[in-house]
Amino acid sequence: QETASKELTAQNEYPSIAFVDNDSLSINYKFRIDKSKILEKASADVQVLENKIAKAQEDYYEIMNKSQTGGFTSDAEIAAAEKKVMKLQEDVPYLQSQMESRIKRLTKLEIEINDSLYSRLYRYIDSYTADKPIDVIMLYTKGMTGLYNNGSLDVTAEIVTGLNAAYESEKTAE
């Protein structure tokens, strides 16, 4: 590594650097767009369960409050409330278990998609730079990883175009 660095310095006074704009990559890379839809669906499934649990807990507290304040007017009302409480006590742990399971699946899916995204990006950039005098491609995020760039080193459009072409050919092959 040190030898390569010395050779690079001997050949060029400075390394050749380019960047990919993180926001543009996120917005325009079709693989990421497609996988984001899958993640959004999985996240919505978790949200549905969270809402069901919240509603069940709200119903439970409402019944308990009504019971403590003498809000029931008949034995039939009390019996129905008791039946509902028993059902809620059965349903909530099941819903919580389902939600925990879906959260684990969502987390695993996020990791798999991110790993695949970075693997695809790295493979493509490796081939992209094979015939170009680029030593480093940085991921630029406005205001976070750079304060300024003049755009002359931006290779985002070329990278996204190539990534999308590779992804489209993969989808066609499936």
Structure description:
- By secondary structure, the chain is mainly α.
- It has five helices and two strands.
- It has helices at residues 2-11, 22-28, 30-68, 75-128, 156-173, and strands at residues 17-21, 136-140.
- Helix 2 runs parallel beside helix 5 (156-173) and helix 3 runs antiparallel to helix 4 (75-128).
- The radius of gyration is 27 Å and the shape is elongated.
Give structural attributes.
elongated; two-stranded parallel sheet; single chain; mainly alpha
* Averaged pLDDT: 88
Radius of gyration: 27 Å
Count of helix runs: 5
Number of strands: 2
Q: What is the string of SSEs from the N terminus onward?
A: HEHHHEH
Protein topology:
Blueprint: H1 2-11, E1 17-21, H2 22-28, H3 30-68, H4 75-128, E2 136-140, H5 156-173
Parallel strand pairs: 1-2
Provide a brief overview of the structure.
The chain is mainly alpha-helical and 174 residues long. The chain is 74% helix and 6% strand.
